[in-house]
Design goal:
The protein is α/β, with parallel strands linked by helices. It is built from 16 helices and eleven strands. Helices cover 40% and strands 17% of the residues. The chain is globular.
Amino acid sequence: MPAHRSALLRRGVAVAAALPLLALAACGYGSQAKDDETAQVAAGAKKIEGLDTVRIGYFGNLTHATALVGRQEGIFQKELGATKAEYAIFNAGPSEIEALNSKSIDIGWIGPSPAINGYTKSAGKGLRIIGGSASGGVKLVVDPDKIKSLKDVKGKNIATPQLGNTQDVAFLNWIAEQGWKVDAESGKGDVSVVRTDNKIVPDAYKSGSIDGAWVPEPTASKLVAEGAKVLLDEADLWPDKKFVITNIIVRQDFLKEHPKVVEAVLRGAVRTNAFINSDTEKAKEAANARLKEDSGKALDAKVLDPAWTSIQFTDDPLASTLQIEADHAVKAGLLKDPLLDGIYDLSILNKVLKSEGESEVDDAGLGAK
């Protein structure tokens, strides 16, 4: 797709991105590091670049397991020395982008659509994607009594997490590929797209108000535990079954002012992914323990195990798939001509990967000059 000057998202997405800060308190916004995390600072450790604190955001989703495990295992804090890691937990991408823009967080784990939206709305000045984290972990799950095949999705009520979020864009694109019509903003058409918070989706399914959902893990596996069936794994729609579901982003001013702190967090992410991929059971336990700490409830094994196996944890941001996801948002009418040149800065990540004996990753020509 040719690069053009970025334009504002349509009104519905723009409003969603402007959530008031007061509302963010409900999703852990600005939460402080706990005493047990402070205790993980090694004796004699020094602050990096003299910085007291780095504020890190993530979602309580298994697709953000790099952040969950890295926090729980103290890996980030170990790399940061006496610079304390503080964490904020979010339920939606727009609220995390708002926190980044207001300088309430410095670094965050986030999906591709919010990253694209945040970058284009700031005319390329707000954030950079500095690393990958996960691929996959998104499924279309349905009521098997109402939907027997893909063609039966037509005329049904299907949930996505939020207007313009990563799964919403993917579902709208899939609908268009079936030759069906849906108004992107209202969700009305040949399929009713019902924007529903992931926390509410299982209850909405049990009540019968939705017939299925295009959602990330662990929500998909929670529905399966309630009797739903997986009709489609989004990974099957992508070359090599890989597509970015979670990136690591940073404020551009923070990257410029504190590159060594950013390097420490990225080293923690790379070492966390190595741990996740080398010791699956311990990593799952750590992620589940963190979810329990953050939300008060751990996942049952019947949800955790199938959800985990559908996610690939990778340092590669799979940059070429980000451009495709942006194209899907344009096709759906939620985004106009995004200029993504410069959205990536993978220089620090590649430095870390080289030092860890790993292969460097590519920005698909979308790197900062």
